[in-house]
Amino acid sequence: MQKKLAYADIDLAQWKEHTEVETDSLWIMDGRAKGDGHKLDYHGNFIPQIATQMFTRYTKAGDIVLDMFLGSGTSAIEAVNMNRRLVGVELKSELAEYVRGKIPPDVLDKDIHILQGDSASLKTVAQVKKTLNSMGSEYAQLLVLHPPYADIIKFSDLSEDLSNCGSTKSFLDMFKKVAKNGYDLLEPGRFAVLVIGDKYAGGELVPLGFLCMQAMNDVGFKTKSIIVKNIEGNEKGKGRDNNLWRYRALAGGFYIFKHEYVIVFWKPEK
Ligand SMILES: C[S@@+](CC[C@H](N)C(=O)[O-])C[C@H]1O[C@@H](n2cnc3c(N)ncnc32)[C@H](O)[C@@H]1O
User: Fold this and answer.
1) Fewest Cβ atoms closer than 10 Å to its Cβ: which of 9, 30, 37, 160?
2) Which CATH number applies to 42-266?
3) Measuring from each residue's beta carbon to the nearest atom of ligand 1, which residues come in under 6 Å?
4) Which of 69, 193, 212, 229 to mutate to test the pocket of ligand 1 (most atoms within 8 A of CB)?
């Protein structure tokens, strides 16, 4: 007899068969999954395995994923591959247009919707709601947030861009608005995932991961898990500078970032 989870296609009666599903909090990945529409064509995209794992554990076929920092559309491509639907929001219009070009025409604007907008704004919330309604749903069933890691990589000159925040405080204020909007758009009882790394500035570690986790908690999300993922296969051209970083680390008394966080949250039913 099947024993299906309410929010995923994982059959608990066959739990030993689901060997592809991660349940440990430390992810040492060999590298970036390639093919199936995925390309390393954007500085700062996440590895497709993050989407694969999260969609497998927290969604069923046909569920709607809401990605409020769509970037180059890794989650959109994986949604197509895994028979999930998706609404993605990206601030940069040329990038949103580029991602539209990567989506098979038969699902574009039907199962996969790419919107241009500022995810911190109420205008975008209204746009997402309208899109969800057109897909026959009041809410999204999984929220994905992969914000800029403050100002580490500058994504655009736009003032709404979180990478133009100016200070950690203003980054967190902007992030919290997105988190609140995401909370309101997510179905109660469902999950959210935050992908984020820390930064180092002025001789001090700035724990963006924990600060953003707190912001998520402040708007109502309960933390389920903190996954530490190695950053191998996510970075372009670091090899050349590896020795220099090692020298800097030894001289400066710090350790080189080799990990980022995949933090899983839950929106309570009530
Ligand atoms: C770390 S990247 C996301 C990468 C994505 N997960 C992928 O795999 O390609 C963050 C993205 O957020 C976008 N962004 C920054 N501020 C935004 C905002 N206020 N609303 C929507 N998108 C924003 C940036 O333009 C950038 O493309």
Assistant:
1) 30
2) 3.40.50.150
3) 42, 44-46, 69, 71-72, 74, 89-92, 95, 118-120, 146-148, 155-156, 160-162
4) 69
Distance (Å) from CA 156 to ligand 1 centroid: 10
Q: What residue's CA is closest to ligand 1, atom 27?
A: 71
C-beta separation of 144 from 33 below 8 A: no
pLDDT means per 10 residues, the chain with 270 residues, are 90 91 94 83 90 98 98 97 98 98 97 98 98 98 98 96 97 98 98 97 95 98 97 58 86 93 96
Tokens of 216: 């998520």
Q: What does the alpha-carbon distance between residue 113 and residue 5 come to, in Å, rounded to a whole number? A: 27
With CA atoms as reference, report the closest residue to 179 among 194, 199, 201, 165. Answer: 194
